[in-house]
């Protein structure tokens, strides 16, 4: 049975040898922690023998306290802790911390019971397995563990991250939370947003992002069915890793400017590939490279297995080495012609085919990141005392929060509107009609993230991470200016000439 202490008893433990205090009706003995305290011994001695609740929460979040539960020796007699502690899978009770469809008082026409089951199951999985590893990898810079990859594969998470399709049929998806045959783009949206809640932007990309943007090219364009199935099985099982290698030092959004070449051998059985690729996500630990190359009359795409002539080198970035961002060199790499994806000299269609889903997925993550920042800022404004008042009691702070909430909610609504079109539009029609709207959504979302970063303030890693990494999404998958131009050009292509 847990021990209880009176407040008078706690007050006596304010000596050179003993330091006790109370936080949220719990009694902590930090006598042996004084030298280890990151803020120094003096800070703890200032509150010795007192109720340190206000002082603690004016500087720290609840998660910090939870790390030191072993220092808690009991509770105050006749009192119970009042601070809400979250368990894996719990929904946040902070206003606007969850999308409206997960808020009890609100309804949505887009989501059904299968969506809610999947959301619950994925949040429990993320809180239990992904977040602890994500934070550990952000700290040490190492790559994702095979243990987590195997666990995600077994749960069907790797399969679900590629969106709806036959590859999900018959697969056990998070213990039956949803059937593969009923999986739609709203399920896909849930997977994208729940998977980003770990607030570890580098790990977010390091967590098999190369598979999400690379494997669809194999699934949709590899002609040899037996070879295609073998590669899909290898990647979905987690035994092999794959990445998309398009960008070069000379060609980012300008895909047509690629300089890596693929020349056929005289017998026509192989391509010889030479060139370099830069900023390739997951390339350091990948076994397959879906590579954009320049052939005799245009652009082509080859699936290149890691082997002789391929060198990968880690690029250190401002978010995290755990993403495995890579510089790749191809030196006379011999590739069978059977590894051509799609048609020779028509590789632009292979590359463009997955851009919509890639950019939509990135929008899901950006908007979820914005919401996480809103939650953190609301918590911080609620608990931080300045000039004798909580921050939330200051009108100027409420105006900042209002702007952040409005930007987040409006982009979530826009995202769901486009997602509904994806669910009700054949894939070929999506390519025709949604490239512009998705491009505009991503452009606007990353602009909104910039504004939210400017307005946000809070403690610790969440705000720091967002400030340091939100700009990546403004470039990856197509720069803001390029996507904005795409959206307008696609709209103008449908503009009737008679409209004056």
TrEMBL record:
Lineage summary: Eukaryota, Fungi, Dikarya, Ascomycota, Pezizomycotina
Keyword Hydrolase recorded: no
Keyword presence, Oxidoreductase: yes
InterPro entries: Acyl-CoA_dehydrogenase, Acyl-CoA_DH_CS, Acyl-CoA_Oxase/DH_mid-dom, Acyl-CoA_Oxase/DH_mid-dom_sf, AcylCo_DH-like_C, AcylCo_DH/oxidase_C, AcylCoA_DH/ox_N_sf, AcylCoA_DH/oxidase_NM_dom_sf
Full protein name: Cytochrome b5 heme-binding domain-containing protein
Top-level division of the source organism's lineage: Eukaryota
Sequence similarity: Belongs to the cytochrome b5 family.
Pfam families, sorted: Acyl-CoA_dh_1, Acyl-CoA_dh_M, Cyt-b5
Cofactor: FAD
Keywords, comma-separated and alphabetical: FAD, Flavoprotein, Heme, Iron, Metal-binding, Oxidoreductase
Domain Cytochrome b5 heme-binding stretches: 2-77
Annotated source species: Apiospora aurea
